[in-house]
TrEMBL record:
A Pfam match: Acetyltransf_1
GO molecular function, one term: acyltransferase activity, transferring groups other than amino-acyl groups
UniProt-listed PROSITE patterns: GNAT
Organism: Cellulomonas soli
UniProt keyword terms in alphabetical order: Transferase
Domain (N-acetyltransferase) ranges: 6-159
Name of the featured protein: GCN5 family acetyltransferase
InterPro entries per the UniProt record, alphabetical: Acyl_CoA_acyltransferase, GNAT_dom
Length: 162
């Protein structure tokens, strides 16, 4: 059975509450895997999230199934580089292709001139790493912050992708 296609569009400030709830639910399993309830997606306040939605250089896409926000991804644009983060899918819908849909939907929302897209995830998040690799992201390096080690992956766009 194939999952229905998502309605993917930028998240508005009016939808901040739904986004806040989705991220909290989605990142609990990540926090449990790393035995760290203080990961940034779980410690960001509602006011910080609303400010982020309105920040220059930040694009937050949401995926809706009907009226339900079931996935989201945040993109930070800096010069010719875009960095993905806060990638979340509702726990009851993970593994059904919604994350892949969101990941594939990013490029049309990027401003002209983006040459590379970066993403990071916990080094031990094997499912995440496999998904990114499947979609053309290549491991570049690891970086430790506190007790966590993150894997950084990059995908070249345009002429650099050849």
């Amino acid at each position: 059975m194939t999952a229905p296609a998502l309605d993917i569009r930028p998240v508005t400030i009016e939808e901040a509450g739904e986004l806040f709830t989705l991220r909290r639910a989605a990142f609990v399993t990540e926090a449990q895997q790393y035995d760290d309830p203080h990961i940034p997606p779980l410690t960001q306040t509602f006011d910080e999230l609303k400010a982020d939605l309105g920040a220059d250089g930040v694009i937050t896409l949401g995926g809706w199934m009907g009226s339900r926000l079931v996935g989201s991804i945040r993109v930070l644009v800096e010069g010719a580089k875009a960095t993905l983060g806060r990638f979340a899918v509702a726990p009851d819908l993970q593994g059904q292709g919604f994350g892949t849909e969101l990941l594939s939907a990013i490029v049309p929302y990027l401003p002209d001139g983006i040459e590379e897209v970066w993403v990071f995830t916990g080094r031990d998040s094997l499912q995440n790493l496999a998904m990114y690799t499947k979609h053309g992201y290549e491991h570049q390096h690891d970086k430790t912050a506190g007790d966590l080690t993150y894997a950084y992956l990059r995908k070249l766009l345009g002429d650099g992708a050849a």
